[in-house]
Amino acid sequence: MARGSHRWVAVIRTSVVSVVLLVAFGALFASADALFADWIGMIVPSVPLHDVPARAVLGTVVAGITLAAAYVALAPPAVDAARRLGRRSTSRFEWLVPLVVVDAVMAVFLVAQATALFGGHAYLRRTTGLTYAEYVHQGFGELTVATLLTLSVLGWVGRTAAPGRHRDVAAGALGVMTLVVVTSALHRMSLYMDAYGFTRLRLLVSVFEGWLGVVVALVLVGGLLRATWVARVAIRVGAAALLALALANPDAWIAEHNLTRDTSTTPIDYGYLGTLSSDAYPVIARLPQAEFVCVTSASVERIDDEGWLGWNLGRHRAADLEDRRPPAADGAPCVRPSGP
After folding, report:
1. Which sign does the torsion angle of CA 88, 94, 98, 103 carry?
2. Which of 24, 68, 290, 329 is most buried when burial is the number of CB atoms within 10 A of its CB?
3. What is the 3-class SS of 16-69, one letter each residue?
4. What is the pTM of this model?
């Protein structure tokens, strides 16, 4: 009787977790992709997710519920740590069903991506009412959350499931599909920045999503090699990425790309360029006079001599340029150039 009751508890627990994962990933992908949402709308009632704050709150709530439910249901606090340490599930059903559910949802999402890519503009306009440009300019945040949740699922499976072919195939498929999702997210952000401009936040979250992709790849390699170094290498790669980002002079990079991008969608935001640090001044100093006034008159940072404690190479170069071409006075009239 006790053994039968335990089986029913395992079935109910696995079913609940599977449904939670289905809803979590389904909602995230539906919010991120209009075509996927259109397909889901044929099955379930549509939920309006066009408001950005509502989408952000939904993603946060879904992520919290998913993590909390997965932890409580599948990794309860150990009563006897000595006995439960390193314990793996003896039932393949308990971890394989939720994993297959996530695999299936992600596979459908990737099919939607491929359909949009090969279906062409006419298909997207007919099914979603969006152009291809509008279609790809959405969903980066949701795809990032989906990547984080996928890493959580892979971590749970690695801790719970016994090594074997079923685990390796199901988890490996999820990892490979997640790498495609990361690529899709980075592609969307790249197109978004080309259309609407580059900012520090957009650049930082792109680097973060790229790092998540590296972590997924490390998890796949570590799983194949039965390695224990994945976490250490992931942390070091993240630190190296942040260091490389700092060395790459991001403010100058942002200014350069904002000034050279196609402005047919949105004009250059000279006010935002004025908020960048002195590292961007060598790029700004090359502007024609009208644009130069628009940027430097809105600048919130003036280059001052702060002594050796405040010295850095970017500020030193900017100070030399400022001597040759001083910024416009605060509040100087900005006459924006004609054109888009």
Report:
1. positive
2. 24
3. HHHHHHHHHHHHHHHHHCHHHHHHHHCCCCCCCCCCHHHHHHHHHHHHHHHHHH
4. 0.76
